[in-house]
Amino acid sequence: MQLERPSSPADAVAALTGGGLALAGGTELVPLLREGLVESDRLVDVSAVIPRGVDGRTIGAGTTLAELEADAQIPAALREACRLAASPQLRNMGTIGGNLLQATRCWYWRLQFPCYLHGGDRCHAKSGQQREHAFFGNERCASAHPSDPAAALLALGARIRTDRRELGLAELYRLPTDDDRATTTLEPGELILELDLPEAESSVYLKAMDRKRWAFALVGVAAARVGGETRIALAGAAPVPWLLDSVEALDAATPLPGTAYKVEIARALIPRAVASL
Ligand SMILES: Cc1cc2nc3c(=O)[nH]c(=O)nc-3n(C[C@H](O)[C@H](O)[C@H](O)COP(=O)(O)OP(=O)(O)OC[C@H]3O[C@@H](n4cnc5c(N)ncnc54)[C@H](O)[C@@H]3O)c2cc1C
Ligand code: SF4
Q1: Percent helix, percent strand, percent coil in the chain, to nearest 5
Q2: Is the pTM of the predicted complex or chain greater than 0.90?
Q3: Average of pLDDT values for 38-47?
Q4: Does the C-beta of 218 come closer than 6 Å to ligand 1?
């Protein structure tokens, strides 16, 4: 396996378009390579070419979760979502760009069951173990998006700048379909460079988890008031970060028998989050 260290974003994109995989902190990519869930003989270390750090409301995609959690310029919801993610060691290595692109934690997918997301014709979680799975958007794949920061950024109305376009955070994600099982809209070789946040009046992130530290969200609730409007987004609820109009929108949830309890968690957390705005 080759490790390339490009010296400009353009060189990185060229190496990625030629079949390389972007390596930032490596906390997600290295385990996926080790497990054979992704394959490549070429890694492209992008850490020297993507921006890192916070400048007002602009965040470099190479900024670590540990840096975001401690930066007073960052809105409370994002700081808290970073603080409650993973472990200190992982937050010290893991970047915000890599966090947004992490793969599902669904164990059927991780154990390489030939499930829908792997290109098969059925979701094994729907007839199997599903306690940590989705209660929205789960018609085909019932995985629950694991990123806490993605929910916070969605509620905050963040925008993303890549090497070739600008998009809202919601447009980074898609539900898998029969002809395309991808859960992001990133093109081959496309690099996330920066995130832009609008001015938020207030924001909050609440996370229900099995342990108080180092656990993925059973349900994460981000709420933000931006331009007088309240926005709510969920982690651990759907195969992608999920935007909700209000707590009443939970009535349209489509829980599996094993995830109905998550709807009740969300029903309890959303009013708490909105009240604390
Ligand atoms: C044990 C464990 C527990 C965790 N718990 C949580 C949790 O509770 N909450 C949570 O939100 N997250 C959690 N995570 C996820 C963790 O936060 C991510 O692994 C980390 O943020 C990924 O960042 P990275 O820089 O290491 O990404 P990498 O591993 O370097 O990359 C991840 C993916 O993103 C791509 N990539 C990276 N940067 C870019 C870029 N700039 N442009 C385009 N593509 C890019 C890579 O090619 C790869 O596909 C956990 C991870 C582990 C291993
Ligand atoms: S939830 Fe998605 S990733 Fe998990 S088994 Fe079903 S199709 Fe596969």
Answers
A1: 30, 20, 45
A2: yes
A3: 96
A4: no
